[in-house]
Amino acid sequence: MRIDILTLFPAMFAGPFSESIIKRATEKGILEIIVHQIRDYAPDKHHITDDYPYGGGAGMVMKPEPLFSAVESILGLPPLSRDNCVLPEAMQEGMTSPSCVSAYTTVPVILMTPQGRQFDQHVAHELAAHDRLLFICGHYEGVDERVREHLVTDEVSIGDYVLTGGELPAMVVIDALARLIPGVLGAEEATHEESHTRGTLEYPQYTRPANFRGWAVPPVLLSGHHGEVERFHQTESLRRTLRRRPELLRRAELTKEEEKILRKLLKG
Ligand code: 6GU
């Protein structure tokens, strides 16, 4: 997969993408991440990327021109305008907004903004299925509405709180989707995600020593009884989900066995 990121702060990405699993994936050639400075696409001498809002009000707004130019240049599109924009035919499957871009390419152009649809494990899977993505990290009080209307195909938020910009959210989203790309994780690591996708929380885990300062590991885990260990995992996973995130259970895909255990937990 190739991921292009448009940002005013490219240096923010250096740390997270040059460590651990993302680093390994880029070294293996499974993942290519290219960070672009939006400022480089500003046409004026001072490379200005923001301006005062029409109609007044607090804060600055990101100008449309640098963002359009950057996306057009990176994706190899002609200059988009009202005249060459085919709507609503340009609306493709999986897109949250019709976009001029979609008349020329199927690459999702994703604006990171607190007003976007909320990111979760399902969205991570959806994005991981593409072979190319482009992220725009929003800043200041927002971006010119024409960017939303005619350039981006998707808007994503990572939760109901306000951050200083879209950079950290883009890193969160990219980390979550990267680990879903085949080959990024080892077979062992890959099983870990399964539970959350299905709508239950992970069961509690223990490692040696069997007794740590008087706190013992649940004996069933030392029993060597595969069936009982499996049942312990299922029960504790459901118990934890019920207690901490009961709303997840309404959408969870449970096996017959898990449903039985859940009914028991709800009774007792
Ligand atoms: Cl995508 N951007 C900003 N600035 N704040 C956020 C966010 C995004 N998602 C949650 N909070």
Summarize the structure.
The protein has 268 residues and is of the alpha/beta class.
Radius of gyration: 23 Å
End-to-end CA span: 48 Å
Portion in helices: 25-40%
Output the structural class: alpha/beta
Order of helices and strands: EHHEEEHEHEHEHHHEEHHH
CATH topology of the largest domain: Alpha/beta knot
Question: How would you describe what is shown here?
Answer:
The protein is an alpha/beta fold and 268 residues long. It has two domains: 2-178, 3-Layer(aba) Sandwich (Alpha/beta knot); 193-267, Trp Operon Repressor, Chain A, CATH 1.10.1270.20. Helix content is 35%, strand content 15%. The protein has helices at 14-17, 20-28, 64-75, 121-128, 145-150, 167-178, 187-190, 194-198, 226-244, 246-249, 256-267, and strands spanning 2-7, 32-37, 50-51, 61-62, 109-118, 132-137, 154-157, 211-212, 215-216. A five-stranded parallel sheet has the order 2-1-6-5-7, sandwiched between helices. Strands 3-4 form a two-stranded antiparallel ribbon. It has a two-stranded antiparallel sheet with strand order 8-9. Strand 8 and strand 9 (215-216) form a beta hairpin. Helix 4 crosses helix 6 and helix 9 crosses helix 11 (256-267). The mean pLDDT is 94. Bound molecules: 6-chloroguanine (6GU). 6-chloroguanine binds at residues 112-114, 116, 157-159, 161-163, 165-166, 169.
